[in-house]
Amino acid sequence: MRVLVGLKRVIDYAVKVRVSKDGSGVAMDNVKMSMNPFCEIACEEAIRLKEAKIATEIVAVSIGPKQAVETLRSALAMGADRAIHIATDVRLDQEMQPLATAKLLKAVVEKEAPSLVILGKQSIDTDNATTGPMLAELLDWPLVTFASKLKIEANTAIVDRETDTGIDSVQISLPAVITADLRLNTPRYPKLPSIMKAKKKPVEALQAESFGVDLTIVNSVKHVDSPPPRPPGITVESVDDLISKLKAENAIP
């Protein structure tokens, strides 16, 4: 069984995001970039399927500038077998629309014919959480989002998905699209030998324009502002002081 994993290059989750001076967006210059955390979880789950002798090959795919190859190398170091880089200079956090991403991934799915596609539930830069559902709709495949547990039996996937009211257990037939939630697994840290081997694994380079997908920007960002600074807190001596303070500010009747 071949598993396709989608990866996105984003600003590292530990970096304090800054707005550019002209307010056009988030400042990207000289900022540490890394694999989207939910995509990393998706990649880890695919690797675990291979270690369990369920998957036979893992193909990682990423859309973005030439630096996206670094993200793919990280996936290869984790255990992916080969990678596909769809090159584009379109800004991923503002200009690359989820539908265009889904259409590009659909073309890759048709080319690679995987039995399972695993994506992160969302990227931490745009938080759209729509690429997975759009891809499943375009492919006319079953979909399970927010997966926290995955089990494959023959041509069936049994998935626990997180909801606001608890856990849903869903059974779907393969091929299918699954989006990974935070509690699906804990990604591994690649060891040095794996990092060195990853440099020799194949990365196929393709141009986004070659797929015939319309990358026209539909939704544009007009202006971005930093959130206002949070006012400092105060210390009160007792509960009575707290109540008096809240009443003075009309926070309670």
Structural features, described:
With 253 residues, this protein is α/β, with parallel strands linked by helices. It contains 6 helices and 11 strands. The longest helix is centred in the first third of the chain and has 15 residues, at 37-51. The mean pLDDT is 94.
The Rg value, from CA coordinates, equals 21 Å
* Helical content class: 25-40%
Sequence of strands across the biggest β-sheet? 9-8-7-10-6-1-4-5-11
Distance between the termini: 63 Å
Tally of helical runs? 6
Low-pLDDT runs: none
Q: Spell out the helices and strands N to C.
A: EEEHEHEHEHEEEEHEH
In terms of DSSP E residues, the strand content is 25-35%
Q: Could you tell me the number of beta strands?
A: 11
Which sheet architecture does the biggest sheet show? 9 strands, mixed
